[in-house]
Amino acid sequence: MAKLTKKAVDDLKAPASGQAFLWDGELKGFGIRVTKAGAKTFILQYRNAAGKSRRINIGRYGVMTLDNARAEAKIKLGAIAAGEDPADIDDDPDGPMTVAALCDWYLSEAETGRLLGRRRRPIKASSLAMDKSRIEAHIKPLLGKRVVSKLKLGDIEGAQADIAAGKTSKPRKGSRGGVTTGGEGVAGRTMSTLHSIFEHAVRLGKIESNPAKGVRKIASTPRDRRLSRTEIEKLGKAMLAAEAEGEHPTGLAAIRFLLLTGFRRMEGLGLERAWLDEEEGAIRFPDTKSGAQTRVIGGSAVDLLLAQPRTRSPFFFPADWGDGHFIGVVRVFDRVCARVGLADVTLHALRHTFASVAADLGFSELTIAALLGHAARGVTQRYIHIDEALKLAADKVASEIAAILDQTVAERPSRRAAREDRAHASAA
After folding, report:
1. In angstroms, rounded to a whole number, what is the distance separating the alpha carbons of residues 223 and 203?
2. Which helix (H) or strand (E) segment is 76 a member of?
3. Global pTM?
4. Given a cut of 80, is residue 418 above it in pLDDT?
5. Gly residues composition bias: which ranges (predicted)?
6. Which structural domains are found in the chain, ordered by start?
7. Which of 163, 230, 357, 395 is buried most, with the most CB atoms less than 10 Å from its CB?
């Protein structure tokens, strides 16, 4: 076996699966490992004083040169000869790899687009923001100081139980900022984030194995809260009264829009004027949870958007200051619901309510899924496009909800409907 050279390291090809190794012919136990993703890591294989075979990472090729890695391997072999076991002291050249350090590495790599998420594309900024929130609020407080290589399933499932029990919950500080909540749903999603971080680290040679592999995630109770017709009427009255008393107009408009369309909260709040196709009555999202997407909305929703005051902001629902979109809708919604005693209602319940009204009007699950922007689950759904049937469904659902909110019997003609009527009259 020849001495390991830079050319040999550069020529080392990634295997189709698993890992491949190339060992040095002069320094026993020194070598390099390449994963199927192409990540190359210098390693040292040895037996400790107890005769147990151990393998440790020395450093990532590209960050560390071959000569530096060889020098580090010699130092560690000297420590082994003296009776020490580097695996018990240092699984990483920069010190014991803690969960906090690994999370920081993940965020840094993901922010630069070097980690791929769903559909093998760089992880979206919105997903990364949620991951960062879970890391800072739950993972670091419970597991941050723990060494990754020493973690056991019991440690991870114990952290999950603590999150579910609310041990990491924190109230809002002052008048701004979010609330850190616990619960089964939060615990399960946090475990998914942690598992994903470990998987990325294993694939890129940062750690040897995923300590969260096999973890049993808590099965949370699905939140299926939706508003009844009576509750929609109550919400409409509360919004009218709140408007008269000076409640934030942008917040009230955003709430109404979310109910008329079934949009996810951030889809609605982050809606840009350039994305509205007024002629088609649709929103052309450049990117969503399910990728680029065209979403049909009812005429009542289009009218609401066009009625929003124009500012220099690209958003229909702009922030009071700064360049971003409005973010205070949750607090506005809570105040409105408190007026009429609507309990256990979140903004996501408006999305369920939209779907419920659509079902009550007799629309199929496939049509409702298209209106909500659900990811395609089959070949047929991939070919759903803007057709008259989908426009009719969006119009009908939005008009029905608007009529309940406003407690009117007759549907108010939307601008799009009026325009189409004029076009038909001209053709005749």
Report:
1. 34
2. helix 66-81
3. 0.59
4. no
5. 176-186
6. 6-89 (3.30.160.390), 99-203 (no CATH), 229-427 (1.10.443.10)
7. 163
